């Protein structure tokens, strides 16, 4: 059996390992298009902060790990897939044939359709190469404009502030991390950042970037005015890398369409991670989640199903995130926006930057947002995923949402 | 034969000796807030429930780690955090459905029970044998593990 994996991120690497474990004899080839050994984008903020060196971002630490596991790692770009002949044509080197293929090509940053995005000094924060460009330009007292206060924008704030830059964040929505946190908590996050000396503009759209006079760049705001900048970092979202499927019979929407086996519309081709439009546990719909735990879940299941013996069902991944914004920790789980009719409870302490919101359907927890909590938050996943009926604990939680751990012990484990 | 922690809440008096022993062993301070085992109190029921990681086979934390900072301890079966590799991203803290991996903002790393390397101080400190360290197949954690299996989304790692 010859397994080929496109993409050397977490999904690709975990799939390769899973395949190796299940099929010691098979050929496994892992293809990535970046020069570095397989690394984790999740670790880039900590690299920017000088907490780790480049090797600290590597998904597997020993230099000969892939060789030891008999996994061939190739560096090249795959722009198209011949699904009839089951052949890949890389940009360098010879054609690669496969018996089973996993597409784990990830996602790429979206550039807003405005003038000036190609000017020198305008960067994404997505690859190690991007990070190195940012490190070069984010000198003390440099003026930096960060476009987008989403997950990536927020998580790199700490590293930018620690580099001593003068930072302005421009976010189109009315709060920070609007796709992860509700209005109360997203607004508290904004206040927190402002207290730390970061200028945060919300409901603020950048209409273009021009060459500046005193500073190299000038960021033009749609509401009028312009921000001088030495460096502009664009973190306005990501999109699944599905272009390689364009000429093929592999169907795509926001991502590559997969069934409950992570199989694409071609029976020998699977997809996993950021590029896959997989089942969402909360909604039952198929959507792109683009988060680490989902990538790994997809990878293990897809790889298992690529082997001849097994059919492992993907019951849906819970969309969840945890984010550290200048030391304030926020998290979201499942259907944090709640259902229509809004059966929820919340507890907030604005002065201490703490907030907790729980969303219910009947007496089952379906989603949550937390701010300023670090202890036992995983149990929110446990409660959502187990669909546990909370019974009398629902009322107790309505009175004091911080009793999540007690509610879990009492209901899921029958401990009280 | 690997051993694991067995917890019998019926025997717990809520004295918190386990939390003291844990924080002293692992953090060098007597401070229940830094303990990896926590005793939850149910006032109305008059019940105390000690709670920590069961070193579950699914190892959600280990699987979710993006930098390979959580490893299986082959001797004890525990899943251990490599502190010098952990970047503090906290993904494991949301991935663990038992809520037993927590972020320590003082160190910028996560912490979880590692069975004290095979000599768990909580069990040693417990005066009522509510916490014992016994052969793995006999523990009462089976129910918890069964639950983990029920909601399992992925093949086991072991």
Could you describe the largest sheet of chain A, including whether it forms a barrel? 5 strands, parallel
Reported by name, the CATH topology of chain B is: Alpha-Beta Plaits
Structural class of chain A: alpha/beta
Spatial extent as radius of gyration of chain B: 15 Å
- Compute the CA-based radius of gyration of chain A: 23 Å
How many discrete domains of chain A? 3
Strand order within the widest beta sheet of chain A: 3-2-1-7-19
Number of extended strands of chain A: 26
Strand order of the largest sheet of chain B: 1-8
As a percent range, the share of helical residues of chain B equals 10-25%
Care to describe what's here?
- The complex is a heterodimer of chains A (about 425) and B (about 160).
- Chain A is of the alpha/beta class.
- Chain A folds into three domains: about 1-110 and about 240-305, FAD/NAD(P)-binding domain, CATH 3.50.50.60; about 120-235, FAD/NAD(P)-binding domain, CATH 3.50.50.60; about 335-410, Enolase-like, domain 1, CATH 3.30.390.
- Chain A has eleven helices and 26 strands.
- Chain A has helices at about 10-20, 45-50, 65-70, 130-135, 150-155, 155-160, 185-195, 290-305, 380-385, 395-400, 405-410; strands spanning about 1-5, 25-30, 70-75, 80, 85-90, 95, 100-105, 105-110, 120-125, 145, 165-170, 200, 205-210, 215-220, 225-230, 230-235, 240, 255, 270, 275-280, 285, 320-325, 330-335, 345-350, 355-360, 365-370.
- In chain A, strands 3-2-1-7-19 form a five-stranded parallel sheet.
- In chain A, α1 (about 10-20) links the parallel β1 and β2.
- Chain B is of the alpha+beta class.
- Chain B has one domain (about 5-150): 2-Layer Sandwich (Alpha-Beta Plaits), CATH 3.30.70.20.
- A two-stranded antiparallel ribbon of chain B has the order 1-8. Chain B has a two-stranded antiparallel sheet with strand order 2-3.
- In chain B, a hairpin with a 6-residue loop joins β4 and β5 (about 80).
- At the A-B interface, α1, α8, β22, β23 and α9 of A face β2, β3, α2, α3 and β6 of B.
């Amino acid at each position: 059996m010859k397994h080929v994996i496109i993409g050397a991120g977490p999904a690709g690497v975990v799939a390769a390992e899973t395949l190796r474990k299940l099929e010691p004899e098979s050929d496994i080839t892992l293809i990535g298009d970046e020069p570095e050994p397989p690394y984790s984008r999740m670790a880039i903020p900590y690299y920017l902060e000088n907490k780790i060196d480049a090797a600290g971002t590597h998904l597997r630490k020993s230099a000969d790990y892939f060789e030891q596991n008999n996994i061939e790692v190739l560096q090249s770009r795959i722009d198209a897939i011949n699904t009839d002949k089951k052949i890949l044509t890389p940009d360098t080197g010879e054609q690669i044939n496969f018996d089973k293929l996993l597409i784990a090509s990830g996602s790429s940053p979206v550039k807003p359709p405005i003038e000036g995005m190609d000017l020198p000094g305008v960067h994404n924060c997505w690859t190690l190469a991007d990070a190195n460009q940012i490190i070069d330009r984010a000198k003390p007292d440099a003026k930096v404009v960060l476009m987008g206060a989403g997950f990536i924008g927020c998580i790199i704030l700490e590293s930018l502030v620690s580099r001593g830059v003068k930072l302005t964040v421009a976010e189109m929505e009315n709060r920070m991390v609007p796709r992860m946190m509700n209005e109360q908590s997203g607004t508290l996050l904004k206040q927190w950042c402002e207290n730390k000396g970061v200028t945060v503009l919300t409901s603020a759209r950048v209409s273009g970037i021009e060459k500046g006079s005193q500073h190299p760049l000038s960021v033009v705001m749609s509401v009028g005015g312009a921000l001088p900048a030495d460096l502009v970092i664009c973190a306005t979202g990501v999109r699944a890398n599905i272009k390689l499927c364009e000429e093929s019979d592999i169907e795509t929407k926001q991502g590559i369409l997969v069934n409950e086996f992570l199989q694409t519309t071609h029976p020998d081709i699977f997809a996993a991670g950021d590029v896959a439009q997989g089942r969402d546990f909360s909604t039952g719909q198929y959507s792109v989640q683009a988060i680490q735990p989902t990538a790994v879940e997809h990878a293990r299941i897809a790889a298992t199903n690529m082997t001849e013996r097994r059919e492992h069902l993907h019951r849906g991944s819970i969309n969840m995130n945890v984010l550290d914004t200048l030391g304030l920790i926020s998290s979201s789980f499942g259907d944090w926006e709640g259902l229509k009719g809004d059966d929820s409870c919340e507890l907030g302490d604005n002065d201490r930057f703490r907030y907790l919101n729980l969303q219910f359907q009947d007496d089952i927890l379906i989603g949550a947002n937390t701010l300023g909590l670090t202890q036992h938050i995983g149990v929110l996943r446990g409660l959502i995923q187990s669909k546990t009926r909370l019974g009398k604990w629902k009322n107790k939680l309505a009175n004091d949402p911080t009793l999540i751990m007690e509610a879990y012990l009492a209901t899921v484990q029958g401990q009280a | 034969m690997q051993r694991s922690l067995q917890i019998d809440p019926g025997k717990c008096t809520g004295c918190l000796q386990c939390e003291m022993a844990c924080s002293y062993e692992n953090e060098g301070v007597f401070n229940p807030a830094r303990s990896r085992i926590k005793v939850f109190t149910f006032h109305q029921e008059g019940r105390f429930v000690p709670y920590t990681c069961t070193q579950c086979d699914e190892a959600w934390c280990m699987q979710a780690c993006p930098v390979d900072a959580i490893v299986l301890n082959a001797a004890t079966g525990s899943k251990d955090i490599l502190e010098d590799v952990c970047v503090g991203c906290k993904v494991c803290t949301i991935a663990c459905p038992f809520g037993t991996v927590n972020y320590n903002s003082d160190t910028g790393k996560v912490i979880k029970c590692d069975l004290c390397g095979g000599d768990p101080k909580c069990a040693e400190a417990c005066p009522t044998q509510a916490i014992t360290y016994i052969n793995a197949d006999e523990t009462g954690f089976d129910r918890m593990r069964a639950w983990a299996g029920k909601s399992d989304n992925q093949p086991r790692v072991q």
